[in-house]
């Protein structure tokens, strides 16, 4: 790579990062629905036409921000899990859930972007899926580990739901029992419901000791997917 080419590549990386940082500030101030490329360009002192060379549309900028948010959340969870890699499955579950809560409280606007209200007119492309899956992959790995050790209790499953459970298992985790996959999807929705209630202020004057409450709820969710109690 020539010196000039390397300098251009570095400059593009720096400008791209500056655009995304300005866009995050706009998210915090206005919300994702009002994200504007022209407003970002004005903040950076750029011509709109120059910014379009980096992000041709608002949707492409939104997609980049969404991928960054999912990757940041996934990295936080992976780092936390690495510190508890040899702990019992239920403890690893708790560590991952707590890392998701901590990240969300520290990044409320990015959390709102990926788990809040959909942005009108925007449809996330498939390129967001790998980043969005990082956290879920960690949890499924914990369940697989417990299943291999015969330490995973099968949650109850109604006969009427079994066909849907088998379809979900085939799509998401064919090496896990359908009972566990259904329970996991339900627990996943409950987990982010808990986190969202706290991030968006729904626990105001309802839950005071939120950390202890969250730990209690996460322990219950671990049991709901069949994980044994942490020793």
Automatic annotation (TrEMBL):
InterPro entries linked: Homeodomain-like_sf (IPR009057), HTH-type_TetR-like_transc_reg (IPR050109), HTH_TetR (IPR001647), MT1864/Rv1816-like_C (IPR025996), Tet_transcr_reg_TetR-rel_C_sf (IPR036271)
Nucleus is among the record's keywords: no
Residues within the DNA-binding region(s): 36-55
Listed Pfam families: TetR_C_33, TetR_N
Residues of the HTH tetR-type domain: 13-73
Keyword vocabulary terms for this entry: DNA-binding, Transcription, Transcription regulation
Protein known as: TetR/AcrR family transcriptional regulator
Organism: Streptomyces prasinus
Organism taxonomic ancestry: Bacteria, Bacillati, Actinomycetota, Actinomycetes, Kitasatosporales
């Amino acid at each position: 790579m020539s010196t000039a080419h390397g300098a251009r590549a570095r400059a593009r990386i720096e400008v791209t990062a500056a655009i995304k940082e300005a866009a995050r500030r706009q998210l915090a101030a206005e919300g994702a629905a009002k994200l504007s490329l022209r407003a970002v360009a004005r903040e950076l002192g750029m011509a709109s036409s120059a910014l379009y060379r980096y992000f041709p549309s608002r949707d492409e900028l939104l997609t980049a921000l969404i991928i960054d948010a999912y990757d940041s959340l996934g990295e936080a969870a992976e780092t936390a899990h690495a510190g508890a890699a040899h702990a019992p499955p239920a403890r690893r579950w708790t560590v991952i859930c707590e890392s998701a809560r901590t990240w969300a409280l520290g990044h409320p606007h990015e959390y709102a972007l990926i788990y809040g209200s959909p942005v009108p007119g925007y449809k996330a492309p498939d390129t967001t899926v790998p980043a969005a899956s990082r956290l879920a992959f960690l949890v499924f790995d914990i369940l697989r580990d417990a299943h291999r050790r015969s330490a995973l209790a099968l949650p109850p499953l109604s006969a009427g739901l079994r066909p849907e459970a088998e379809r979900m298992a085939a799509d998401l985790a064919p090496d896990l029992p359908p009972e566990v996959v259904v329970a996991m999807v339900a627990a996943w929705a409950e987990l982010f419901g808990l986190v969202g209630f706290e991030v968006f202020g729904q626990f105001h004057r309802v839950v005071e000791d939120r950390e202890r409450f969250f730990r209690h709820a996460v322990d219950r969710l671990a049991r709901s997917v069949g994980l044994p109690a942490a020793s």
